[in-house]
Amino acid sequence: MEQDETLNKIEVRGLKKSYIERRTKKRFFSQCRPQEDCKVLDGLTFSIPSGTFACFIGPSGCGKSTMFRIVSGFERPSEGSVLIDGQEVTGPSNRHVCVFQEDGLFPWLTARQNIAMGTEGLKGQQAREEVEEYLELVGLSGFGDHYPHELSGGMRRRAEVARALITNPDILFMDEPFGALDFVTRLQMREEMVNVHQMFDMTILFITHDIDEALQLGDRIIMLSDRPAKVAWDMEIHEPHPRDLSAGDLRQIRKEIYHKMGLHVAL
Amino acid sequence: MVLKKAGLFPIVLAILLLWHLVTAALNVPEFMFPRPLSVAGALWEMLKNGELYRNSVSSLFRVTVGFYLAVVTAIPMGLLIGRQRCLRTILNPLVQFLRPISPLAWIPMALMWFGIGDKPAIFLIFLSSFFPLVVFTTSSVLNIRTTYLRVAENFGLKGFKVYMKVILPAALPEIITALRITLGTAWLVIVAAEMIAVKSGLGYLIIDARNSLRMDMVVAGMVVIGTVGLILDYMVRLLERMPSVEWSRMRR
Amino acid sequence: MLAVAGAIFWLVVISLLRFTLPGASHHETRLKVGFLPITCHLLLPVAMERDEFFRKHVLPVKYTSWPDMIESVKGGELDAALILAPIAISMMDQGVPVKIALLGHRNGTGLVVSSKRPINQVKEFEGKTVAIPIRYSTQNIALLSLLEKEHVDMQRVTRVELPPPDMPSALASGAIDAYIVGEPYATQARLMGVGTIFQKISSIWPGFISSILIVRKDALKKNPTQMDSFIKGLYLQGQWIENNRRLAADMGARFFGLSKRLIETVLMEKEVSYRNILPKKEEFQAIGKKMVRYGLLTKVPDIEVYLKWY
Prior knowledge:
heterotrimer, B: 252 residues, mainly alpha, C: 310 residues, alpha/beta, D-Maltodextrin-Binding Protein, domain 2, five-stranded mixed sheet, 10 strands, globular
């Protein structure tokens, strides 16, 4: 688990993405009209040190998910580069596991089988024990044989997190993972994510549109501007967990974020 | 299920009664449309002399072999076409062109290539199932959520493993629906094919009964064909209850 | 997994059932002979009943329509077939390797008209629909000759091709006004009370030929003695039928799956003849010429080649 502080980080330089080249191919389906510039990302630059819980916020449709796909290796940028551990990212890797916005559990496998996907390389008994361990870790001990459609939304997310964690990744990418959950479940999941981060000591890149969520979780909050996205604000938060958002510095930061996003709410 | 079955019997009885009353009241001659009783007699006769067993087995055997051949070739092909853009560009027009051609249009060719007997019928069944299955499988692969494919990529699944562990299971619910539809067509086609290409089977039973002017046997044959068709459909429907495909029904 | 196991289990079960069916057996060494249930093919059932050789070495294959049989002959599925003479001639024209062996019988074809909507003169066929077995049939040629002789406008007579067993019911339902066909389907309309015989074709075409026996050259080459016994056996039945019509009718009815009364009625009228069934070059040339005349053939093939057996 010991990692070199200086090496293991994400380095994003001048990331640009536009969908102009796609327009000619998929003319009928593209939302872009000809001549219109379809820039989504406009020179994103940031770097994340190893072990950081980094939260990205920004108005919806600003290109958070596009950035997510590029950084995690599923799409290529039009310009700029993404370096992980000093290496250019050319594709997804099982060292950097994603939890997507949509349900990513395979519905044809039980929770246990889904989680076991991440135990490639381990042998029979050992793998089985590990799967049970992770089921327990996310509080799904009795639900190993359930299929995803037999689980609640929160349970599915837990199983998915377990599946990601069991691979023991360097980086966990999460794209609005709790967006579809009800309020209480979300709060619980946040707490657990904090625990997970502390237990596993990994780098987490977490995208959300929920400002409170970012404040609850992040060691670092990066705010993106409206489309085409740039880094609008980048701050570090050193509050210990559990955090109280209505007190002290956090209250101040929260106000500022609301302000910067152009929201005028009494807090 | 039990309740449904209990409800079925009176309905069947009512239909038979209605059939009898209408044919009797209108005084329809037996050679135009036979009464239920004479059809039952014909059924009993065919059951006793083994014709029913012999022809049902022949038909079922042909459908099984032809359909299985189609399944084991069409599904892998559909998966590949769905995945590989270049294959899609090359093969899709061909498949789309051949698909709407009724398998019965192949009868002259089937007879000349395979003579008479099981082979031409199996060939026709194969054709009737192969093209729809390829098309259905292709489209179900195209419908797979990108998230699943991304997860697979993320977990480092490659090549054959992606097909076996992600693409096939993700497409399976739609493929099973396709199997149900194509098996239904196959059963339609076997009867038509046996009227021409072979000398046994339920289709032949009907044609032979017609030629010997036995309308009661013709209708009895129809009854058997309908019943077997129902059973086949029920069997495939059992597949839809498999735990690993149930999710698609839950999602609707 | 369970589903796959189930599917495989079913395949095994149905295959076992299929291959334990009687007659599903082994390699076929018997001569495969195609026929239709018509009196013109009566030689075959009688031979099957009376001749030991036939029971051992001949496999009759029943057809219900001519096109199917044609494809089987062309594809080599059948070794021999009782088939309409014009079909055989057109096969020769197309180069299908066949030889002519025997005639099925002579006469035994009738032009049937509806008894509800009777036709009394040939002229009245104008504007009517007449069913024929297939355009390559002597029935078709006979019909056209009759129309031509009486100066009927052939364009105004609609001819449709129907499998013979369908003709009586088509006449009864009014789908057609008349049909020309080999026995017993002409007599059948009479017995059903739906039609009357307008004309027996033997009255305008004495010794009328309907079907003939053709054999494939490859089958002949493979086992000439077997083929020889087969042809000889069929030929000999002709004599016997002439002297035992009632018995022959019974055999035919059982074999064809038709009513005994029907076949007996046809045979006891003694119009159909099983004498004189060796093929003659002149008769085939005459049929060929008529086929050319009615646009069924571009030129008459050299019939003699197909009749040579030595």
